[in-house]
Amino acid sequence: MAINIDLDSRLLINKSCFGLNIQRAARVVARKFDDAFKPLGVNHWQFSLLMTLQVPDGMSVGELARSLVVDRTTITANVKPLERASLLTVRVDDEDARAKRIELTEKGRELLKRAFPIWQKVNAEVQNIVGATAGEDLLGGLASITNA
Questions:
Q1: Under DSSP, is residue 102 helix (H, G, I), strand (E, B) or coil?
Q2: Among 129, 82, 118, 120, which residue's Cα sits nearest to residue 102?
Q3: Share of the chain residues as helix, strand and coil, in percent rounded to the nearest 5
Q4: What is the CATH number of domain 27-147?
Q5: Tens digits of residue pLDDT in 17-60
Q6: Please, what is the Cα angle at 112 between 88 and 105, to 5 degrees?
Q7: With contact defined as beta carbons under 8 Å apart, do 73 and 80 qualify?
Q8: Cβ neighbours of residue 81 under 8 Å, at least 6 residues apart?
Q9: Where are the domains of the chain?
Q10: Would you place residue 1 in the very low, low, confident or very high pLDDT band (cuts 50, 70, 90)?
Q11: Is the distance from CB of 90 to CB of 100 less than 8 angstroms?
Q12: How many CA atoms lie within 13 A of 48 on its CB side?
């Protein structure tokens, strides 16, 4: 039995599809952050990766991948330009010579100090668009999806 996909179906997807609408909103929000971070020479994804590494002794590639919900190859590819920019270092793990640890450098920490107030400003702008209570609900819902 063939299913007829009509204009109403398209409008339904356009209005109620979580995947499509989360993706659209993510692009708009990421663009706001990317534009704000541009003077620092990083984008929002790079800022998020660096901020995630703001822990004692850094993280393994696997730990960082799990934390950012991406695969290890994505981490490896995205770490290389940040390493070339001296914002982080990659070294052999002290406890497992097969594993690599990624750590912020002093230059990376200094960049985060400059980037954090920019993040606060843009994040507040996005929250103002959504509304404080709706923003908290949205973040809670997104966390539920991420942790499902």
A1: strand
A2: 82
A3: 70, 10, 20
A4: 1.10.10.10
A5: 999 999 999 999 999 999 999 999 999 999 999 999 999 999 99
A6: 25
A7: no
A8: 46
A9: 27-147
A10: low
A11: yes
A12: 15
